[in-house]
Structures are given as C-alpha cells and as structure tokens.
Specification:
This protein has 418 residues and is α+β, with helices and mostly antiparallel strands. Helix content is 35%, strand content 18%. The strands form six sheets. A six-stranded mixed sheet has the order 6-5-4-1-7-8, with helices on both faces. A three-stranded antiparallel sheet has the order 9-12-13. β2 (37-39) and β3 form a beta hairpin. α1 packs across α2, α8 (178-201) crosses α9 and α10 (284-303) runs antiparallel to α11. The longest helix is centred in the middle third of the chain and has 24 residues, at 178-201.
C-alpha cells in the first residue's frame, strides 16, 4: 500500500529548526515548482520539490511557503496554495484546499496563492535578505517560471539580498529522523522483493528493458509512487558505461548483468546496485572480479562512521580500492585506480537520491549514505558495482540493505531455483 501521510509534527519540527537558523532581518521563500512541458499538450510527471515537502508535506504544484526567523517571536510562517478550480479538478483530480493544507502541514496561516506577492512585499519591507533556491546542479537547465520570478524580484526589490537556502537545509536534511529512515527501509524492502524476483526469472535471451519493466511493476504494485531514478540494466560491456539507461540489448548467457535501481516510497528512495550472472553461475574470471569488488564494499562498510566527512571517506576509499585492486592484479600501481574505478565511493541519500552534501562537513549520526565501489574492465567487457545503503552511527554503521543478496553463494543459490 502507498505510504501514509507523515504526521504534521514532523514538518512543524523541520520548519522550527530552519527558522532557528535564519538570521534576523531575513525571510525564507520555498516553492514547490510546476509541471514542465514534455511535448504538445503533455507534461512530464510532476514530482514535488524535496525541500518544500520536507517543510510542509504538501505536494500541490505551484504552492509556496514564507518563513521568518524564530528569534522574532511571531508565528512567522504562511503557506500559499493555488485556489480550488472545479474545472481543473474535473480533468486532473482533487486539489489541496486551505483546510487540508493546515492539517497536512501543521501551519495555521494558509492562504490562497494570489495573496502571496502582497504578503511577500509586506514582510520584506524592513528586511535585508531573502533565502531561496532553485536547482543549483545543472548550469544549462531551461529557465523555469521560478527562475524568472526570482529574476523579476531582484529588479523590483533591489535592496533585498538573495541568499542560498541550500547550506541551511544541508544542516537539517543530513540527519535523518526515524520517520525518514523507516521510509528508506520500506523502499529497500520493496526493492529486495523485486530484485529477488529478477534473480529467479533472469535468463539469457531476455532484453534489458524487460528487467527494467519487471522492477517498475513490482515497485508500483507494492505502493511506491515512482522509481527513484532511471533504472540501469546493463548486460556485459554495457556495464562499463556508468549511466547506461537505454536498456535495449539482449542478454547473453556469458553476461554479467548490472542493475542499479531505486524505488521511491513516500518521497524517499533506496539506491541499490547488484550484479547477477545471466547464466546462473559466475565464471572463474567473473567470480574473481566480483569478489574483489565485494571485498572493497565490505572493507568500506567496516570503515565508515559518523563524524567522517565525504572528503575523508573518499580518501580512505581510494587507498583501500588501490590496495585491493593492485593485489588482485587489475592495476599495476595504486595511482592507476582511476583507470578501473571510475567514480567516488558513494553519496548521501534521502529525499533526493543524490542528497544534499558538502565534501568537508562531518556527517552526523543519522546520516544515510551509499557505499558503492566499482571495477570497470572495458577490454574484458565487464563492469561490476556493488552498492549498499547504510545508516551512520557513532560506532560505525547499520546496513539498511543487508537483506538484499550480494554474496556469490547466495546469488547462485537463488538463481538455481529458476
């Protein structure tokens, strides 16, 4: 079944924490974005903005949130929702009304969207800073309505300095609450059942996209809202392309099949990579390479703990991978690691699959990260990546994905049952 709504106190607590970080004389504006056109009269499926959801629990497109600092001692939070439109609801389904918005978010001050600009201009009158954010990752992304709106504000409010909200949200979203961890664990549970089905049905002759379809079916049937990201099903040499997503090749008996997949449950996704032998058994060459990557995976899981930064984790990963890959004969010297290990050891995980992170900041107790060493042997037509999701603790970590098979004996044993 689909994820139940998180309690309003979860979002109220998150807003309170953000308001305590806002300096005096500032405002925060968080927007939920709008559907983007795909072609003709079709839009891409809408997915709520992660930070907006984290603060409100609201999924309604075009909604906005204004916050003032906690130190000012007033309510300081107003949610703005598009007016109900009977015609739109006839075509597109139920919208979020003002009363429902109060219940979901825990915000008493809820108004219709046309009141937003008047409120913003009133609230900013004696303020100097506006904290806001648009997606900062892709420099060549198309300008959205939010980009244009903020550009217009800079002209209309020249005395207001625009500040990035991201660094403040990083402090909050890095540490996962028990509710967030539970959602990631549920996503992983669903993914584990789906991957188990793949293990038992994977055969030579199938097409990569049929495996992708099997996973998507299992995720949606179990109550997930969507896949967490474009699924990678890469057979043989396709696995040496890191973000291979065309998934069109026919699987051969001699192939290893790399599957990098995520199921999004209640806005939180797992992110798992497993590698299965299409013929049911690893060849000697495949077994050696796979066991080498698994050794790195297990060594890094034993290393990581709260208080380490991504910079430190990646440095340790370079050393461990270099030593193990050199010992196994895949590189002549540790400095050659980039020729076969094409990416970093992992990333933060949460509302975004590549969640907010800063290289030099210590990761807190409660951070969820991936550990995903890879070995890519292009001349052998073989790519291996083994990815787990772990919850950091003071002493080490807890592997949230531990029930998803990665040992050779367990993988081959389950494939015998096909």
């Amino acid at each position: 079944m689909r994820a139940p709504n998180l309690p309003a106190r979860f979002f109220s607590k998150n807003r309170e924490a953000l308001r305590k970080l806002l300096p005096e004389g500032s405002l925060a504006l968080v927007s939920n974005g709008a559907p983007l056109p795909r072609n003709a009269d079709q839009n891409y499926p809408f997915r709520p903005d992660s930070t907006f959801f984290y603060l409100t629990g609201i999924e309604e497109p075009k909604a906005r949130l204004l916050l003032t600092p906690w130190s000012e001692g007033q309510a300081g939070e107003t949610l703005f929702l598009p007016p109900l439109d009977a015609s739109k609801e006839t075509w597109e389904g139920k919208m979020t009304g003002l009363e429902e918005g109060k219940v979901l978010s825990g915000i008493e001050g809820v108004a219709e969207l046309p009141a937003f600009e008047f409120t913003l201009f009133s609230w900013q009158k004696h303020r100097e800073q506006l904290y806001c954010e648009v997606n900062p990752i892709f420099p060549h992304q198309p300008l959205t309505a939010e980009h244009l709106f903020l550009e217009n504000l800079t002209r209309r409010l020249p005395g207001l300095a625009f500040k990035k909200l991201g660094p403040l949200m990083l402090k909050l979203r890095s540490k996962k609450s028990k509710e967030e961890v539970a959602r990631i664990e549920q996503a992983l549970s669903i993914m584990g059942r789906a991957l188990d089905r793949v293990l038992r049905t994977l055969k030579p002759g199938r097409l990569e996209y049929q495996i992708e379809a099997e996973l998507a079916h299992q995720y949606l049937y179990a109550g997930c809202d969507r896949v967490g990201f474009d699924t990678i099903v890469a057979a043989g040499a396709n696995a040496t392309t890191l973000h291979y997503v065309s998934n069109r090749s026919r699987i051969k008996k001699s192939d290893l099949v790399l599957i990098d997949t995520g199921a999004e449950y209640g806005m939180y996704s797992g992110d798992i990579t497993r590698v299965f032998p299409a013929g049911g058994k690893f060849s000697a060459k495949q077994k050696k390479a796979y066991q080498t990557v698994l050794e790195v995976n297990q060594a890094m899981i034993a290393e990581v703990k709260a208080g380490m930064s991504w910079q430190e984790i990646n440095e340790r990963a370079k050393r461990i991978q270099g030593e193990i890959y050199k010992k196994a004969g895949y590189i002549k010297a540790e400095k050659n690691l980039p020729s076969v290990g094409l990416h970093r050891i992992g990333h933060s995980l949460g509302l975004d699959v590549h969640d907010l992170q800063q290289a030099e900041d210590p990761l807190p107790v409660g951070a969820v990260i991936t550990i995903e060493p890879g070995l890519y042997l292009k001349e052998q037509g073989m790519g291996i990546r083994i990815e787990d999701n772990v919850l950091l603790t003071q002493e080490g970590c807890r592997v949230l994905s531990q029930k998803i098979p990665k040992e050779i004996a367990e993988i081959e044993g389950r494939m015998k049952e096909r």
